[in-house]
């Protein structure tokens, strides 16, 4: 599997495009600037199979609708945030003065930790709440990578002062769901550079002494 990091929008939210040998791909967190996503897909001749959302804050969902409309692909989201795509108050766009970011409801709602297959892709959905109540991570064990959304960053963790956030819950999520992965696992974070489980275990100041 190949992956590509594409920072989008004013907050430079990382969109990830994961592709296989047959040019099928998954799009994770298309935050804005759909034309940049289209350009990459066209360049690589990729065919999207689905849009996966780690959570539904405005900076992770801004390009959902144009991508879904163009490629007729389903959107996956945790059930606790099922109303957020349509509600600018819940997704935070109104709160942060970013206009009203909206999308149609998700096609599939996820709950619990589960293995999921979409086309030729098989991966594990892990509930990692704390940054938001419905935050999830997507673990591709064979590829050795996890898309953690805004749970875990290089040298930091997600903010927990937004509605539904919890610092204690986030730390529990990181320790029980992410740090138990093989240390060489790549962490594809929602913002900033890619890191590894080992690096965060060794040097992330927010995780020391938990």
| Termini separation | 34 Å
- Count up the helices: 4
CATH architecture call: 4-Layer Sandwich
Q: What is the arithmetic mean of pLDDT?
A: 96
Q: Which overall shape is indicated by the principal axes computed on the Cα atoms?
A: globular
The biggest beta sheet reads: 6 strands, mixed
In what range is the share of β-strand residues? 25-35%
Order of helices and strands: EEEHEHEEEEEEEEHEEH
- Number of extended strands: 14
CATH domain class: Alpha Beta
Task: Write up this protein.
The structure is a single chain. The radius of gyration is 16 Å and the shape is globular. The chain has a six-stranded mixed β-sheet with strand order 1-2-3-4-5-6, with helices on one face. The model has no long low-confidence stretch (mean pLDDT about 95). The chain has four helices and 14 strands. β1 and β2 (about 15-20) form a beta hairpin. About 20% of the residues lie in helices and about 30% in strands. It has a single domain (about 1-205), classed as Metallo-beta-lactamase, Chain A, CATH 3.60.15. The chain has helices at about 35-45, 65-70, 165-180, 195-205, and strands spanning about 1-10, 15-20, 25-30, 45-50, 75-80, 110, 115-120, 120-125, 135-140, 145-150, 150-155, 155, 185-190, 195. It is α/β, with parallel strands linked by helices and about 210 residues long. The N and C termini lie far apart (about 35 Å).
């Amino acid at each position: 599997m190949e992956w590509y990091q594409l920072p989008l929008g004013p907050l430079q939210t990382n969109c990830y495009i994961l592709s296989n040998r047959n040019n099928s791909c998954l799009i994770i967190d298309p935050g804005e600037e759909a034309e940049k996503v289209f350009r990459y897909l066209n360049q690589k001749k990729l065919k999207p199979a689905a849009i996966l959302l780690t959570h539904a804050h405005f900076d992770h969902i801004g390009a959902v609708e144009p991508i879904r409309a163009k490629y007729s692909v389903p959107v996956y989201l945790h059930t606790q945030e099922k109303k957020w795509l349509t509600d600018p108050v819940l997704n935070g766009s109104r709160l942060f003065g970013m206009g009203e970011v909206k999308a149609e409801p998700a096609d599939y709602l996820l709950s619990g930790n589960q293995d999921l297959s979409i086309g030729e892709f098989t991966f594990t959905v892990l509930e990692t709440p704390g940054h938001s109540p419905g935050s999830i991570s997507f673990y591709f064990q064979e590829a050795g990578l996890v898309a953690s959304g805004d749970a875990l960053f290089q040298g930091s963790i997600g903010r927990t002062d937004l509605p539904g956030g919890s610092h204690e819950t986030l730390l529990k999520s990181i320790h029980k769901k992410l740090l138990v992965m093989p240390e060489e696992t790549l962490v594809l974070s929602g913002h900033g550079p890619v890191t590894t489980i080992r690096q965060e275990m060794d040097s992330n100041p927010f995780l020391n002494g938990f």
